[in-house]
Amino acid sequence: MRITRTGGGRGRRAAALTTSVLTASALLLTGCSDDSDSDASDSNGNITLTVADFGQFGYKEAGLFAQYHKLHPKITVKEDTTTNEQDYYPKLLQQLNTGSGLADVTGIEVGRIKEVVDTQAAKYTDLSKTINVSDWVSWKEKQATAKDGTVIGAGTDIGPMSLCYRRDLFQKAGLPTDREAVAKAVKGGWEDYLKLGEQYKKKAPSGTYFMDSASAMYNAVVSSSPKQYYDADGKPIYKDSPAVQQGWNLAAEAASKKLTQGLPEFTDPWTAALRKGSVATVVCPAWMAGQISVNSGDAYKGKWDIARAPGTTAAAWGGSFLAVPKSGKHVKEATDLVKWLTAPEQQAAVFKAIGVFPSNKGAYELPGVKDAKLPYFNNAPIGQIYAEEAAAIPEAVLGAKDATIKDTISTQINNMEKRGTKPADAWKAATDTIDKVIG
Fold first, then answer.
1. Using CB atoms within 10 A as the burial measure, which of 86, 169, 259, 293 is most buried?
2. Burial, 199: exposed, middle or buried (Cβ in 10 Å; 0-12, 13-18, 19+)?
3. Nearest to 337 by CA among 350, 322, 347
4. Where are the beta strands (DSSP E) in 83-153?
């Protein structure tokens, strides 16, 4: 969906798939927006609902807005999309604080949901009376639940983790190519992943690197832990977090051993590397497959594959929510729309359209999800892989400034990769910056 994940968070992405076809034309990022008036209505009872979001949520690509209009002829849905979530979120906060300019439905990135729940929940409609929270994976709706039990957001997608790898490069480097064999090689965790990288480096095809970015691996390590940047009381613990320390140490090791090309994901050099074919592995939350297929192009179709993520602990990277501001003119209609958009059938339709994995468990048994395969990735059974990962993802403690912490640490990891910054200096730079922001 959205290609602007905040730090390790939601860079919404593109990934079009059906159970048998990956359609590149549907994968491209939609950065345009529809101008509309969220208060629009006429004397005949026709109304316009505006959905404000960021990047690509997939509703238009799946034809859901048009379908909803057919089901509800008096309701027209228009989408107001901001390409970059980092531009979208400050605007949303300003609208919430002033009570002006809000859409009928607003998207909220998972890296922001804790801050919104803690500081803005009173301005959103309680969806707990509308949606059945038990229909979602357990940890998803808890992320959008305030202390008083109100639920301010219905979950859209999630990012269960996998490992995308180039079969042809692995073969040339003398590594296993079968996805089950690759999963077995890294079953001990991300430490095994680095060991595999060292093996790859010994016989690596000229001009190739084992991984694109150590910061991506870092985010995967942290995302697999229930304790990340904050404790349950809202206190920042990132300096002492075992998950952060493990992720940082592994990233520093990858940088020092030159296992990484040092390319921040979603940047122009990163997309160029995929197009050139210089990257052997990419940490792969569900939405990443689309980015790889679009940027790698037809030349590498079938040469990529997908294996289960390293280790036995599942990880989630990314995901968003749809929320309904109380100040809207059509709260009931907007709430009904959110319920419909996040129902199993509609989440399955979005999955087939752009490849983002549902958070509503009811979608997992639908044929279009359960039996889904990616031809571009050697027919990897992604429906099965992602559903199994989703079921094992631990409930993580979220903090108000998760996204800021991730962004800052990722920047310093990149400095270790590209500038040769010493780990101690990079860590000090990261913590100094974070402390200035979060106090």
1. 293
2. middle
3. 322
4. 105-109
